């Protein structure tokens, strides 16, 4: 039954949205799943700002305290259990990653063998959870970086990506040698060794925030963005395709400079990248065009002096190696903010060349 046909003779779209806007987020999420017209309102530029928003916040864990905590940034507390106390043995959890409402943790206790990876994915809002099949680790030979991918608006399944990176002398990381992918639809791990070859054996995935858009995983490497696509094929035992996107403001000394401080994000399904200019006084937010290999354009600027009343955050040593007193860990372009300073193509070109 089409709810649009039932409501159209009596209520306009404006009135329907006005009613839906008064619902708690959880109720709205349930209702829009059974009515396509209500679901479409979420993607309408005019109506989406009026509808209940996804609760926002971030999880953190002190290295010296095993308790996981949630900082809730929503206007209304949704009663989310930020300590994950609904999980068995939650006091032994180590926070690994988060993505669109799901949380990835690893069990670490005296009862878990040191060479075992035991991961659990949970939804703090619904208190549902799932323990993944154990995998092996060789801590003396490899460094592991694990990412979670999930987009409930497009795919019902989640993915977990575990990058194996060869560890060298003095803990130097040589690059990704193997990738393990878990799909909740298949319930098994798929091993992919195709990332290790003569051309990209220096790809080293770091712990910077990643982005999951339209089923594409975007992760930071030391110099660019590694993209994995066609993840649905993993359920058939076929590894995903991969390629890299060069970051804006890329420099030869990127490892010691901009790429360490930059942060990936997304807005309206488009990949964005926030990074400080060389003087650290301004943060540039770049928008990427997939149809143009070098398609980065500046969409927003943030003046540190306007935001914090000062801009003396960057210090140089020996005239070239910089240290910065702030780090970009996330950015949100969907909140209501003043209109950004307009950016023209010639300004973007000048920034790119500096």
TrEMBL record:
Any Pfam family: FBA_1
Residue ranges of domain F-box in the record: 11-51
SMART domains given in the database record: FBOX (SM00256)
Annotated protein name in UniProt: F-box domain-containing protein
InterPro entries in the cross-refs: At3g26010-like, F-box-assoc_dom_typ1, F-box-like_dom_sf, F-box_dom
Record organism: Urochloa decumbens
């Amino acid at each position: 039954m089409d709810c649009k046909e039932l409501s159209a003779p009596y209520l306009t779209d404006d009135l329907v949205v006005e009613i839906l806007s008064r619902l708690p987020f959880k109720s709205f999420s349930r209702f829009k799943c059974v009515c396509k017209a209500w679901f479409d309102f979420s993607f309408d530029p005019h109506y989406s700002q009026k509808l209940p928003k996804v609760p926002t916040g971030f999880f953190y864990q002190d290295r010296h305290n095993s308790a996981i905590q949630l900082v809730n940034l929503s206007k209304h507390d949704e009663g989310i259990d930020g300590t994950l106390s609904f999980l068995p043995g939650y006091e032994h959890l180590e926070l690994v990653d988060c993505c669109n409402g799901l949380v990835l943790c690893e069990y670490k206790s005296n009862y878990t063998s040191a060479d075992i990876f035991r991961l659990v994915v949970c939804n703090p809002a619904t208190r549902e959870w799932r323990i993944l099949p154990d995998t092996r680790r060789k801590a003396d030979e490899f460094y592991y970086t694990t990412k979670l991918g999930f987009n409930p608006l497009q795919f019902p399944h989640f993915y977990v990506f575990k990058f194996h990176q060869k560890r060298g002398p003095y803990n130097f990381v040589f690059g990704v040698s193997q990738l393990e992918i878990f799909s909740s639809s298949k319930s098994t791990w798929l091993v992919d060794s195709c990332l290790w070859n003569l051309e990209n054996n220096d790809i080293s995935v770091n712990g910077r925030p990643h982005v999951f858009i339209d089923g594409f995983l975007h992760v930071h490497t030391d110099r660019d963005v590694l993209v994995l696509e066609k993840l649905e094929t993993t359920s058939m035992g076929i590894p995903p395709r991969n390629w890299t996107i060069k970051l804006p403001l890329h420099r030869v000394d990127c490892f010691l400079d901009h790429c360490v401080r930059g942060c990936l994000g997304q807005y309206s399904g488009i990949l964005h990248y926030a990074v400080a200019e060389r003087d650290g006084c301004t943060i540039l937010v770049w928008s990427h065009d997939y149809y143009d290999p070098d398609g980065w354009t500046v969409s927003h600027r943030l003046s540190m002096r306007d935001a914090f009343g000062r801009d003396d955050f960057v210090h140089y040593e020996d005239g070239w190696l910089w240290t910065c007193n702030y780090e970009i860990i996330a950015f949100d372009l969907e909140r209501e903010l003043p209109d950004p300073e307009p950016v023209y193509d010639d300004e973007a070109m000048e920034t790119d060349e500096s």
